[in-house]
Design brief:
It contains 1 helix and 13 strands; from the N terminus they run ββββββαβββββββ. It is mainly β and 172 residues long. The chain starts with 11 loop residues before the first strand and ends with a strand.
Amino acid sequence: MAGDYYYESRIDTYDPVTGLYYKAVEEVSTDKGFLSSKSSQNNVININIFNPIDGTSTLLFKTAQKNGIPIVLFETGFKDGVIEFNGTANNRTIALNNFRIDKREPKNKLLVGLRNADSKETILYISDKKGSGLKKLVTVPNAADWHIDVKNSKLRVVHQTGKEIRIESYEW
């Protein structure tokens, strides 16, 4: 389920469309003790968005986030009937229905996901690529799946309870 979405947790990438640079802001904590079973851990608490045109940096969230931020995803181009994505998520499992797409410019949207270590819920936020207009889109329970339906410009959350499927759709 949700574990398949996060193949790379490193946030250190450029948007080839806007030139913006996304870099993880990490809180580094080290458990002390000679026999401690815990090692140092880097927790992404925010995302710095650097604009190389004017040299400014902006933090995506106003305050540090206690949940890890394993997902940053945005559209970067169009090639051979497919919308291309960049970021930290596994595009093959997140960007579905991504074939024979009518040619269009990449959307000016940034999708960011926070992952609660205890509940395993994923909280999805959306903003423009500069980080403006940040809003919470949906909280996805651990037992649910989610993906972007590229052709129909929707983000879908798929819940299964017993033999019943319930699908929620959000604008992408």
